[in-house]
Write a structure and sequence with these properties.
Blueprint lengths: L1 E8 L4 H6 L1 H10 L4 E8 L5 E10 L3 H9 L2 H4 L3 E8 L4 E2 L2 E2 L2
Antiparallel strand pairs: 1-3, 1-4, 2-3, 5-6
Length: about 100
């Protein structure tokens, strides 16, 4: 059952994000079997918008919460808030799941 996890960085925390990016990317590589998609949110000009979006394939909200809590970005206190919502996979990579 997919979940969307949206993160919102604390104001003025871009340097924290940059400093811990390598550990965050290594973590994503370790959990890639549960990631349908993920990435940083960007402004229209391509600059950092202060947060990210994860679409994860897990069975429960508790598993989604555990995934984001294990992210190095979470561990260093980057996020001001995190929102988790169930998601209905209708189309993915051009394939219908309806």
């Amino acid at each position: 059952m997919p979940y969307i996890i949206e993160t919102f960085d604390k104001a003025g925390s871009l340097e924290v994000r940059k400093a811990h990016r390598a550990a965050h990317l290594a973590y994503l590589d370790r959990i890639k079997d549960r990631l349908l998609a993920c990435g940083a949110k960007l402004n229209d000009d391509g600059s950092d918008a202060g947060g990210g979006l994860y679409v994860v394939d897990v069975e429960t909200r508790a598993e989604a919460e555990a995934l984001i809590q294990a992210d190095p970005f979470h561990a260093v206190g980057l996020f001001a808030r995190v929102e988790i919502r169930r998601w209905r996979k209708a189309y993915l990579d051009g394939r219908s799941y309806l």
